[in-house]
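Hi Y.,

Following your request, here is the sequence exactly as I used it, all 59 residues.
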Amino acid sequence: MTHRFLRTVLLLSVGLACLAGCARRDAVASDAEDLRDDLRSAGQRVISETEDLVNRARD
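Below is the corresponding structure, written out as tokens. Let me know if you'd prefer a different format.
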């Protein structure tokens, strides 16, 4: 019975570790997507502001 109990505890521990790893991976992926979107927005703002400056310089 002790062997069976230890095996069950070990399997539950491994299962919980896997679930925690999946949750962490999803959080990191979400953060990476947010960062990518922020960088894309910042890049678009830089392009827009640069175009505005170029247009003002031409006028």
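The chain is about 95% helix and 0% strand.

Thanks again,
Q.
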